[in-house]
Specification:
Radius of gyration: 38 Å
CATH architecture: Up-down Bundle
Number of helices: 10
Largest sheet: 4 strands, antiparallel
Helix content: 55-70%
Shape: elongated
CATH class: Mainly Alpha
CATH topology: Outer membrane efflux proteins (OEP)
CATH superfamily: Outer membrane efflux proteins (OEP)
Distance between the termini: 93 Å
Order of helices and strands: HHHHEEHHHHEEHH
Number of strands: 4
Length: 477
């Protein structure tokens, strides 16, 4: 057998070119940047919100978005040195340590990594065929082999639309992370308000117990001196026993609040916490019109805009499915022996799919249109809901602020004066012991109600911050 060197050389050249052919293909088409649509407007065109921290503005296919972020170490106890727990401390630690955000960031990073996948070309195909018998068939026949390399290309614009949809979904996932931060901030302030209320309730109970013991001692002295009945002593004992029941409930509320705070901060549920800081005077609320304006940039609204943009890109992609894709090929075919050494071995060609399945493509377009309409309606519903939520939360905050001021300026002072006057009157035998107990019960109940109003003010401001999209300063913070 003799194989011609002139035949082997082109064959080897074709194989080498095929082996490194991937390096000659260009990268994915870069989709045109799209401008964001105001959240108050209904979506009329494909738009994208501003790039978030999860998707860098300078993102390109060669970025290392698919690489996992470097691991971060968490301090063993982040509250070292903290003597009074504030909402800033709690929110900061929760946003640093809560695993919910890590989970959502990972989901967003996974969607970012989809962009280079959907915008890249398919791998080129390499095929090799040979007739083994041609290697020893005789001097009149040359060795026959065929090498072909082919590359499929989508119709212009398809890869760009796939990338646009992938980016929009990733942007929506990034906004979901921001929305989760708002929800965790609200939950943290709620838990701190519960902790504050339980601790203050325990303090009020301790003060009440001290005063009741003084009342009982006075009643006992008057009984021994023949100035009062023994029933006064027994009534004081009943009040002290009822107070012990209250202390048991407050201990349960305090431990549950601590467990909730520790869970949010990714700490052991039964870990010790410093006492909550006192809340001071309420800050002045912005105008409700300003709050509604801020709420139009809420993360969940921006996420809805991004998801609508993704559906718009999917619709445009479905409409482009009527355009054919094509495939190019180049081959060296040694089976063409030729006549008089004519160079017939080198070949080029193209393949095109024929989009005959119109019904399937029409159904895909109808589905995409329905999804776009659904996302638009979702955005409109969310916008209307946000306007109501802002107004409702604003009025609730204003109500609790006025109640807190009323207790601080009038109610508590009057209740305290009533108890002092009752003590003087009882000592002078002007009123019965039950009247003094009623005055003390009323003072304790009003003090508890005051702290409940303060805690409720913190909760409602936290809710207002969530529905607006940024924190509204809580009392004293």
């Amino acid at each position: 057998m003799r194989v011609s060197a002139a035949r082997i050389t082109p064959l080897a050249t074709a194989v080498c070119l095929a082996a490194c052919g991937c390096a000659s293909f260009s990268g994915p088409e870069e989709p045109a940047r799209l401008t964001p649509v105001p959240a108050t407007a209904r979506i009329a065109t494909t738009t994208l919100p501003p790039k978030s921290g999860v998707i860098p503005a300078s993102y390109r296919e060669e970025t290392s978005a698919h690489q996992p972020p470097p691991p971060t170490s968490l301090p063993s106890f982040p509250l070292d040195g903290v003597t009074a727990l504030t909402s800033e401390d709690v929110v900061r630690i929760v946003l640093e340590r809560n695993p919910t955000l890590d989970q959502m960031r990972a989901s967003a990073a996974a969607l970012v990594a989809r962009y280079p996948q959907v915008t890249s070309l398919d791998d080129p195909l390499l095929s090799f065929n040979t007739a083994p018998g041609s290697a020893w068939s005789g001097p009149n026949t040359e060795y026959a082999a065929r090498v072909e390399i082919s590359q499929k290309f989508l119709s212009p614009g398809k890869r760009g639309l796939k990338g646009t949809a992938a980016r929009a979904e990733a942007a929506a996932a990034a906004e979901d992370v921001e929305d989760a931060r708002l929800q965790l901030s609200e939950a943290s302030r709620f838990a701190l308000a519960d902790y504050f209320l339980a601790v203050k309730g325990s303090m009020v109970a301790e003060e009440n117990a001290k005063l009741l013991r003084e009342f009982r001692q006075n009643a006992e002295t008057r009984y021994k001196n023949g100035q009062g009945p023994q029933q006064d002593m027994l009534q004081a004992d009943v009040e002290i026993a009822r107070l012990e029941e209250r202390v048991v409930s407050l201990r349960r509320a305090r431990l549950v609040a601590i467990a909730r705070l520790n869970t949010l901060m990714h700490l052991p549920a039964d870990g010790l916490l410093p006492p909550p800081a006192d809340f001071g005077a309420s800050s002045v609320l912005p105008e409700v019109a300003r709050l509604r304006e801020l709420a139009t940039e809420r993360p969940d609204i921006r996420a809805a805009v991004s998801r609508a943009a993704a559906e718009e890109a999917t619709l445009a992609l479905a409409q482009k499915q009527y355009n054919p894709d094509f495939e190019t090929m180049a081959a060296y075919d040694g089976f063409w022996q030729g006549v008089n050494n004519r160079p017939l071995q080198w070949q080029v060609g193209a393949r095109v799919n024929i989009p005959l399945q119109i019904g399937r493509r029409n159904a895909a377009v109808d589905e995409a249109r329905a999804n776009v309409a659904r996302r638009r309606a979702e955005l409109a519903r969310l916008t209307d809901q946000v306007n109501f939520q802002v107004q409702e939360a604003f009025e609730q905050v204003r109500e609790t602020d006025e109640i807190v001021r009323l207790y601080e300026t009038k109610i508590l002072k009057t209740a305290e004066a009533n108890v002092k006057e009752g003590q003087t009157a009882y000592a002078n035998s002007k009123i019965p012991f039950l009247n003094l107990l009623d005055a003390q019960r009323n003072r304790v109940a009003l003090t508890d109600r005051y702290y409940e109003a303060v805690a409720e003010s913190v909760r409602r401001r936290a809710t207002l911050g969530r529905v607006v999209g940024e924190p509204i300063t809580a009392p004293g913070h």
